[in-house]
Amino acid sequence: MVRYGHFDDRTREYVIDRPDTPLPWINYLGSEAYFGLISNTAGGYSFYRDARLRRLTRYRYNNAPLDLGGRYLYLRDDANGDYWSPSWQPTQRELDDYECRHGLSYTRIASARGGIRAETLYFVPLGETLEVWRTRVTNERDTTAELSLFSSVEFCLWDAQDDATNFQRNFSTGQVEVDDGVIYHKTEYRERRDHFAYFACSEPLAGFDTQREAFLGAYRGWDRPAAVEQGSATDSVAAGWSPIGSHHVRLSLAPGETREVIFVLGYAENPRDDKFDPPHSQTINKSRVRPTIARWLDSATVTEGFTALTTHWDRLLGGLQVSTPDADTDRMVNVWNAYQCMVTFNLSRSASQFESGIGRGMGFRDSNQDLLGFVHIIPERARERILDIAATQMATGGAYHQYQPLTKRGNNDIGDGFNDDPLWLILGVSAYLKETGEATILDEPVPFDNAPGSEVSLYEHLVRSLSYTLDRLGPHGLPLIGRADWNDCLNLNCFSETPGEPFQTTENVTGGQAESVFIAGQFVLAAKELASVAELRGLDEKAAEYRAAAEKMTGTIVEHGWDGEWFRRAYDFHGNPIGSGENDEGQIFVEPQGMCVLAGVGLDDGLAARALDSVGDRLGTPHGVVLQQPAYSRYHVELGEISTYPPGYKENAGIFCHTNPWIMIAETILGRGDRAFDYYRRINPSAREAISDVHRCEPYVYAQMIAGKDAPTHGEAKNSWLTGTAAWNFVAITQWILGLRPELDGLRVDPVLPAAWNGFVATRVYRGATYEITVRKPIGVSGRVTRLLVDGAQIDGTVIPPAPAGATVRVEAVVER
């Protein structure tokens, strides 16, 4: 087995010690409005708020090499003409040594060649709309070194979709201005010039380039730029074609000398009332950004900014820290899983190595689930996100499936019809209430479809979310699936012209009769949560109504959704069961087994245990739980996209990691800690680090999918970083296996641990108080808490009432049998 790096738990970094990782192993810069992707070889791109509409730099997906385009530096030995990239890419010249350290919102890449060492720190300062590259070049030779350092970025013409397709226009619109060594990218997007980018350098320039062809040379790529090869920039000023930014700095270094060069890439806007913003103006207000540029080109400012960033992450991660008998659990809970939850919160599914940032925006379902993983870290931003999400909801209770983060408007081309979407809002808001106890959010006026004058309370939005399901029940009394439920690729409203005849069309009828057992289980869970919220507001009659609806749906699931040994998945357009022993393929699906047990269906009659046993027997693999079995071997038009994938990939029997935590949680509900933790470790990235040549994706963050047992590459991960897997795994391990679970009336301590553990300790900040928790358990025991002591006094049950903000509460939980 091959490793490409290691965890540095002390510095909270993942250290990559060879550049040729199986896939680009990336990190994210920024945590507020300005973001960037950066790979271990400095690939990636930057944007402001919206990866499509405010893209600063260009990146070409599905390229060869796969990771091409980024924040590239070139070093040239002016004595002999040798040149290389300190990040290895794009020149791929051999390096004497190489190290990339991905940290929390920063990346540091260091290397050496021919006695010249270079180290670059990349980060986005808090509160700024810019990124800093701090490069330190050291001469480790015995003689003076005469060097050239070149920077390079390729500017995107703002709308990444238009930039990648509208060449007849774009090759005539590129505009760049160079003033006092600062490169300003001022290409307008259509006729509105209210934003621009800038690229600055701290050192006096020997030259610059802003026209791509002048820098690279005709018929050349980024691996051998003509300007670098010749050792001289051309001072080109872009007019149309492809604008770039490149600085040329000459360095003369004595033996042992280190020089620091700082580059700043940033985004700025002209206020609408600015005198520099008349229609069709060719002027940008450079005076507004000059003080910012000067400040961040100063070494002391950069040092202070980086210190502030690390302090910021100390505070964010300090809200939950654990020490368990398992090192992989500790590093994921304490650092990497929490960090991934924050990145996923910021970006939903919009921009990764597998999402171009063009098509998706923010997901309604996705963002509500992401709340579960970060609400304890930044509850104030969770509140803001909830209100943003709810404002895209429709008056029917339905929801746009996705919305653009810049405009906060729903995407009309991916609108209503994913019938699980509205219920996730209830679960997201409930998580916020449990964490914060701040119920005033329920009274916030929130519009429908962002339409002025349509405001109702957030609580009314939740009520309509539940009603949306009740208003759309199918022939069996189960919820209609619409275009799809959680699984976007399960499209069951495809039909034939004549029932019973071969399917002739792939038309998707969102108002069709196909029903979802998964949504039924989700509805039971959401109705129970809304009942608790109603009680919080003193609406006892409504609470009883919602619980009655949950009970009725539970009965419907048992009657029409139980297949004998597991829960069925759905019914198709013609009323045929899906996920049933009656089917030749796709007989059992994982989603309803997890969601129904989470909702409490089948706990009293043994159905839950039988369903989870079936999951272990039929869906479990060493690399995780697959989505369904048997895999679909051919295209089924009545099932839609799910059957278009080859067996073992994505939704066709792949290990869709998002669903695995539902099974972990379900196992803890049954008290089966060994099973829950076993499932947790199977997909834990840190635990898979030793098989990085098989896993291929980053060993420090979860991937969306791992190839299933039907695939020739079983165990290979894809679609890392931006996935609901991050939030749900964090919930599974912290709230259910470790059992530190916020409730409306306090913090529950109810661990369900593997028998081999003897307990754990944790620090949990909850509603402003700090809980120092020790769990003790004899090795070999797999039981629940038998005694709970709070500040030395035993209490009844496992829920600790909230302590005053600022208090420190000492908790001892004992498992004796």
TrEMBL record:
CDD domains in the record? GH94N_CBP_like
Which UniProt key words apply to this protein? Glycosyltransferase, Transferase
What the entry lists under SMART domains is as follows:
CBM_X (SM01068)
Organism whose genome encodes this protein: Actinoplanes cyaneus
**Entry protein name:** Glycosyl transferase
Keyword Glycosyltransferase tagged = yes
> Glycosyl hydrolase 94 supersandwich domain spans which residues?
12-271
Which terms does the record give in the GO molecular function aspect? carbohydrate binding; glycosyltransferase activity
